[in-house]
């Protein structure tokens, strides 16, 4: 049920300009109390259908959609964040402020990271409001949540200037002023305080990703009860005897009755290029973390992936390099395998789609769909490039979106408005290979009749969403496909390189890659084991997790499920669809041809270890909105979070054992403070498990860093290096602190395993951790008992220097020749510039754009006055406009951050 402090979000719509007629809801609020509620609580909106909405967030969305408007991706992400992260933090802060009488920084501790997140969002987008230059439903909801804390403006932190400006701007809007006047009465404040007093002590649901500032202790700490502390001490005392036996799966890994069987796939990467960091975090690395976590939980886990090798992209790459499609596939499959191996991706099997098993399974599914009447044929007008002498696949034609006028829309979908597009509907289409204008020609093709399968799909989606964990963007994108009704989807192409269509009249065609490629999950598993059907035709025993970036969602949530549903062969369908947003590079996009960004075959040559790359990518994993790789941020996180926090703690704990106790874990006599620490660590461990169960990978990593932070504070407060020189009591205290600390380090080695497997193994090797440490415990237990002898302790991380990182930033910033010693055969030929382009001018303007972009980032990082940032951003946009004109392309406003393509 909703909380009293939420009501303002709802009332805005009553006074605002977008509200429906008053007949759609009743007023005053007391008339909204739903009769069957045992404790009437506002707001609650009863719809004409009889359904009731309790969440102010949901009510705002309802009125917004009722007005005929649609939320974009960015607004949807802010609303998801408000519901899951901001509201729990606000509740905790209000409790401290109104019930416990706290003020200032102490009262705001629970919302400090949430405030920084809003401020950062405004700074990164460079806009007045959260989603653009005008207020949106996201602004209303977030403002309404924060208003009870900052109603008089005096509590706004001084160091969050953009947040303060945004909050004051929102508060000056007439609807907001009216909403505040209607709710923030003396009686309303009393009711809010009384309501909070009746609630359990609240705590934030979880933390945001790491910031550059040191954090205070978790505000949830004061929620520890005496029972929690006693339970933590009991669990500790049980030691490794409390840990389950490690599960040893058979080979090949097959489902086992009575166990949790987890099947994990990551989107099959195209074989025609080298994956960049955004590709890696978007699918294979995220899936790897979860697969490793599942194995730590003793779940029976199979993780499969492989290269997607058919289609126009492969044929085009083969032409560029003067090779056959098969040679290109062999070459780049090896490159992909090498990259993923270096990054420590733990596939059970990494295959490919150009196999006999792929042909057999794809043609079988096709035949079953044909027999059941779920295929139809029709003439298709297609774009054909006469210069390239080929029909153009959807992703190899680009033009202006017919719906929103976005100038980089693809031939199948617009990344800006999300609408589906028929390639011939594009305005001013261009062949992405040679940049000629294609012509329209007709060809007979086969279609998957999605309208016939729509009802089955919706029934399955309802079940999957009710029982599984789909990310918010995956649900949103799927709903957007269903919103206007499904249309038949063409599944054949006029190509030579692909799975052949086994039907007379179409034998000169192949299956379209987005019909064929997801079937690769099945065929890759079939190449791993001839008992593949025990995974893929076993929905009763198998939970399927799909990992991908958001552009792959509709094909995994609509097209592929419809193919399997229509085949009527008992296939396992996805239970948990996990989609990321995009990772950008600094202020732009990754581009192999322009030398912008770090690609997988280059990461090793930087000298930065694979586990550090893994840590950084996972710490900024784009879960709720796009994020950006930054060299300065990489340096900061390596030196502060890895070197000074995590590495410092583990090294100190081990060194104390070696230096003071001869390499053997000393005796421990726990004090009340020690037991409280055990409970606090156990709380972080439980939260870590809860988050990873829900595939909240980035947020679970914060729990690991929180434990090492607690450990550093524990050591610093108790000063064992001083106490070891004191009396018997002091030496006993040093003994206990050292023993507890080294056990915390051992626990961290287990929790780190999904994120930094090499570092995890190094810690366990140094501590000579017992075999039981390959299973995640349910509580913090003493795994290294007194007398346990550890090994040689050495530093885990190296400091990154400014000049080292600056050299890397320049190297990967574009405009420089790629190092032929890296992977010369992997370089894509850059497109030829249009005739008459002044290449020297292009180079000069590109350098100015890069320099000005760096200047803007530095100003934002320094939190300078917004007006100064706006002036420098305007200069940057003007330089970009000039560059576009010189390059012979029309200038365009920058796409919103949340809309960038990979």
Automatic annotation (TrEMBL):
It is an enzyme of class 6 (ligase). HAMAP family: Met_tRNA_synth_type1 (MF_00098). One of its GO terms (molecular function) is ATP binding. One of its GO terms (cellular component) is aminoacyl-tRNA synthetase multienzyme complex. This is Methionine--tRNA ligase, cytoplasmic. PANTHER family: METHIONINE--TRNA LIGASE, METHIONINE--TRNA LIGASE, CYTOPLASMIC. Residues 196-223, 812-852 are annotated as: Disordered.
